[in-house]
Amino acid sequence: MVTVLSIASISYGDLSYSIPEETKIGFVIGNIAEDVGIVQRAISTRKARLNIVGSRKRYCKINSESGNLIVAERIDREQLCGPKTSCFLNFEMVLENPLELHRITVHIKDINDNSPMFATDIIKFEISESADKGARFAVGEAHDADIGVNDVQSYSLQTNEHFLFEMHSDSGGGKYGELVLEKELDREQQQEVKLILTATDGGIPQRSGTVVILVTVLDANDNVPVFSQAVYRASLPENRPVGTEVVSVSATDADEGANGHVTYDFVRISDEVSKLFALDQTTGAIVLCSSLDFEEEISYDLKVQAKDGSGLVSFSSVIVEVIDVNDNAPQIFVQSDTHYISENAPPGTEVGIINLQDKDSGANGQVHFSIQSNVPFKLNPSIKNYYSLVTTAELDRELVPQYNITITAADEGTPPLSSAKTIHLILSDVNDNPPEFEELSYSAFVTENNKPGTSICSVTARDPDFRQNGTVFYFLVSSEVQGVLLSSFLSINGDTGVIRAVASFDYEKFRSFTFQVLARDSGSPPLSSNVTVHIFITDENDNSPQILYPAPEDKSFMTEVVPKAVLSGSLVSKVIAVDADSGQNAWLSYQIVKSTDPGLFTIGVHSGEIRARRDISESDSTKQNLIISVKDNGNPPLSTTCTVFLIISDDLADVPELKDMPYEQSSSNLTSYLIIALVSVTTLFMSFIILIFAVRYCRRGKPRPIFDGAVAIPSGYLPKNYAEFDGTLRSSCNYDAYLTTGSRTSDFKFLSSYNENTMLTDQTLKMNTNCPIGKSELCPGVVEESVEFPETAQSVALDQHSVRVCHCTYLVWEEQNGIEMVEIARFVAGSI
Ligand SMILES: *[C@@H]1O[C@H](CO)[C@@H](O)[C@H](O)[C@H]1NC(C)=O
Ligand SMILES: *[C@@H]1O[C@H](CO)[C@@H](O)[C@H](O)[C@H]1NC(C)=O
Ligand SMILES: *[C@@H]1O[C@H](CO)[C@@H](O)[C@H](O)[C@H]1NC(C)=O
């Protein structure tokens, strides 16, 4: 250690030295002896003593041998002088022999043996983050026990972004500093700032001391809430139930406490949207509070705000996309209102315009349609989703008066939705159907002597057209019947088709006639058709039998001469009568009502032949008168009587009256045959009619007693020599046909027995049921002959039903001798 000694020579005995503090013990400050100017030995000999002024401690001493002043104790300037800038140790040296007093001053110089020190280890600041730039915060100064240059000379602050350090000197030379806010603090970034401040002195070597400055940043509401996303997106199928959470927004606020408490709300939201969505103010969850409809709105843009406790807000938006769900069935609109179409509209006629719509989009809105297959209509695509409904075939109102056309539309969604619509289409009428008669032809039977005005029959024609197009009126087609206008016989009711007789008919004048009835509708132009009506006049018993022989109108008596030798059974005479009526009405029976000798003669009931009952004897009167009644079988019967005079004699001269009366047997026979044949067949015919009644009533299980007698058909009356022919006729009809085997055969024989078992049975009638009436079928077997009336028919009313009998009457003309009659009866049972 180098010590700079500064020896200040103090006048007369004052000595001054200078040493640094903390010099080590034993260090020679100076040689006193030399400095005082005495010999070295004098120090000891003169008993040099060193006294310190004002201190208990000595600090220095004098080496008596060498006369050196040496450091005796540790000298600490700071202890000795504190902050005083100059520090001295004052000694007085006393010498004896002679007493001499010398003042010795030792200047203690400072050395840098103390470091700067702060009052505390840590300096705490609390600074609000809102503090402005430039704000100052005083920091307590550091102290250094050393003085002068060894005292605190500078401060240095740890490098940081927020603070600077600025040093100031006070009047006492103390140096202190301030923290200057260079950049604002942010609590949210850094809650506290820890800095080290170093104070440095100027000594050599330099010493320093540090302190920690702890700055706690106090919060200020300087942060707005921040949303986690700038835009929130959510997709939601439109059929989501109410209450579904759409999305949850969240915002954070870096501030503390109320400054950081965030609440949420919608901003500028329309009433409609506010009914759809609800926002939870505290959680930020957005829920659905009413059903969405893609078809109304496909997306929503919601503005939301987040607000902290002191009102700082920030905004975000929520975009809710609505996803389409197939929730709308296709709709079918029928554009045209006219649902009428004329039945004669050609195929391809447009009936209506159909519009298909589906509110859904994409596949959910793709619509396919179909039309029911059983109607003659189809849909033709037109513009976009418009279709025209057209006909595909001819229409007929009379077949199908209206159509219900069902159109079905379905979309392509999963599952697909469909809907249907029915178009009610009414066909309007066109007069395209002529009236049509219910039957091909009509036949009616009217009994002669009818009252004028009697209804005979009625014709009906149907016309399926509508209203007047189908309203039928009837007219008689004018014609003539035997030279007389038809209208003088018949009239027709134009509305009902009922045909009435205007005049009375006479069977004996004409038996049938045919005319046509025209049916015409009221369309424009009208359509018409006609039908043939056959009227058959049936006989009534209005003619009495007429006696041909013996001629009643001849006033001269006709007398038959009977030989005396007549045996029993011999033919003696014959009554011949005719009846203008036909059938039963002309079936004559003969009866002797009075005779001279009742036992002698008998008359054939139907032949009119008068025969002897027994052999004539001599005793019998020669003049015999017979009164004979001829009665027809009508109801009531009509009869005539005649008288036959018989003279029993072998001599013609006895009978003068007979001379001019030739009797032609053959001609008489022919007439008889004719009558017999007529009678027989008529009987047969009537029998069948009666039988048919009987059968009908038997079937009902209520046989009427009135027919008990009527069914007693004397089929035994049929001529025996009529050969029955059968099997050659069509099997569908059962003909009971009788034919005379020979012409002009006089020998008619009648079966006398009356046999009920020969009645026709039910079986026969059944077989007849297929026989059609009104067809001109020739009865086979007689075709070679000239046929005059192929067919006639008769009808008999029975309650509301009636029975038809077709009745073929063939008149066969023979060249010479007049008529031979063949009658074939055909029977049909059935109801009209
Ligand atoms: C069509 O529908 C109507 C009622 O909707 C019904 O009265 C009519 O009978 C139907 N017509 C056909 C042909 O089905
Ligand atoms: C009858 O038919 C004609 C066409 O022939 C038509 O114009 C008219 O409307 C029809 N009348 C009715 C009532 O349908
Ligand atoms: C009756 O109809 C036929 C064909 O059906 C026809 O030829 C005839 O002219 C018609 N007669 C009258 C009078 O209309």
TrEMBL record:
Tell where it localizes: Cell membrane
Membrane-spanning intervals of the chain: 673-695
Tell me where it mainly resides: membrane
State the Pfam families in the record. Answer: Cadherin, Cadherin_2, Cadherin_C_2
GO BP, one annotated term: homophilic cell adhesion via plasma membrane adhesion molecules
Q: Which SUPFAM superfamilies match?
A: Cadherin-like
Give the membrane topology, semicolon-separated if more than one.
Answer: Single-pass type I membrane protein
The protein's name: Protocadherin gamma-A11-like
User: Which keywords belong to this entry?
Assistant: Calcium, Cell adhesion, Cell membrane, Glycoprotein, Membrane, Repeat, Signal, Transmembrane, Transmembrane helix
**What is a GO molecular function of this protein?**
calcium ion binding
Using the record's annotation, list all stretches that form the Cadherin domain.
11-118, 119-227, 228-332, 341-437, 438-547, 554-658
What does the UniProt record say this protein does? Potential calcium-dependent cell-adhesion protein. May be involved in the establishment and maintenance of specific neuronal connections in the brain.
Q: Look up the domain of life of the source.
A: Eukaryota
